[in-house]
Every structure is written in structure tokens, then in C-alpha cells.
């Protein structure tokens, strides 16, 4: 059983993408799947605008297999035909690009055993397979959270830097105005004292 677990782990294949979707534009990724294999993954908008994108998975014969308009989506569908599946992202927003994370999980071993429903895929292997899927889902979720945290941290750093620069500019403006007022009033009182 331990050998099967290691076999599952080493034959598991995951693809992660981090990309930008510009306003009123589309981005596509293609991945090849065999018939009856699981198309599993997670899409998340990390930052940008209203955080909504249209996400669609299309089969090789251009039929929509999955559609969602959200900022965070987990998907798990079964491939009906073999071939290249298209993962499309579209932003209908007029401004503001979006940073999107896509993680695709692909289990090679499942198709080698003939799918989860086959007779060669016994109960122990199903349990191990489900355990690997759950552990991988947790690892993927942690990776997505780290990506999102890094993006927020970078935004916080930039905001902090901008506030410091703005505070320094304001300080010099206030000191300059104070010096100008002091000189103006000094000159004004000096003129009055000379005219008396």
C-alpha cells in the first residue's frame, strides 16, 4: 500500500499558472486530457478591480463543459472526449487588469488503471487516491494563499512607501510656507516700523 501511495504521488502532475488578464480581453490555456479523466483545479483572482472574471472550460469539439463568473472557483469535471481542452479567462471590466492564479491537477495513474470505476482500481487504491487528491488540494490551496499574501504584502509595501514620500513632501511644503509667511510678516513689520 505504501508503494502505491508513492506511485500516486510521483505520477501526479500539477500545472500552476499566474497571469494577467487585461481589461476587455481574453486569455487562453490549453491542456490535453484523455476521455473519462478528471479535470480538477482551482481558479482565483489574486488582485485587481472588482475581482471578477469569466472562466470557461471548452472541450476539443468547442462545447462548454464548465462556466463561472466569479473571483474564486474550484472545478472538477470529467473529460467526455480525448483532446485539447481550452481554459478561457475574460475580463469585461473597462479598466484595471487582474492577476489570476490557475492550478490544474492531472492524475496520470487514474487513466492507467482505466479510471476510478474500473475493476483494477480496488478499494485500497481508491482510498489512497482520494488521500493523495485531498493532500494535493490542501497543498495547492496553501500555494494560492501564499501567492495572494505576497501580492497583498507587495501592495502594502508600495502604499507604505507612497505614504512616506507624501509625508516628506508635505513636511517640506509646510516648512516652506511657514518660512515664506515669517519672511513676509517680517518684511511687512519692518516697512511699518520704517514708515513711522
Q: How do the helices and strands line up, and which of them pair or pack?
A:
Layout: H1 2-11, E1 12-21, E2 25-33, E3 38-47, E4 53-58, E5 64-70, E6 72-78, E7 83-91, E8 98-107, H2 108-112, H3 123-195
Antiparallel strand pairs: 1-8, 2-7, 3-6, 3-8, 4-5, 4-7
How would you describe this structure to a colleague?
- The protein is an alpha+beta fold.
- It has one domain (2-151): Jelly Rolls, CATH 2.60.120.
- Helices cover 45% and strands 35% of the residues.
- The protein has 3 helices and 8 strands; from the N terminus they run αββββββββαα.
- It has helices at 2-11, 108-112, 123-195, and strands at 12-21, 25-33, 38-47, 53-58, 64-70, 72-78, 83-91, 98-107.
- The protein has a 4-stranded antiparallel beta sheet.
- Helix 1 (2-11) crosses helix 3.
- It is elongated, with a radius of gyration of 29 Å.
- The N and C termini lie far apart (106 Å).
- The relative contact order is 0.18.
- The model is unreliable at 1-12 and 108-117 (pLDDT under 50).
Rg, alpha carbons: 29 Å
The level-1 CATH class? Mainly Beta
Largest sheet: 4 strands, antiparallel
SS-based class: alpha+beta
In whole angstroms, how far apart are the ends? 106 Å
Q: Into which percent range does the helicity of residues fall?
A: 40-55%
Shape: elongated
Tell me the β content. 25-35%
- CATH structural architecture: Sandwich
Tell me the domain tally: 1
Number of distinct beta strands: 8
CATH topology tier name: Jelly Rolls
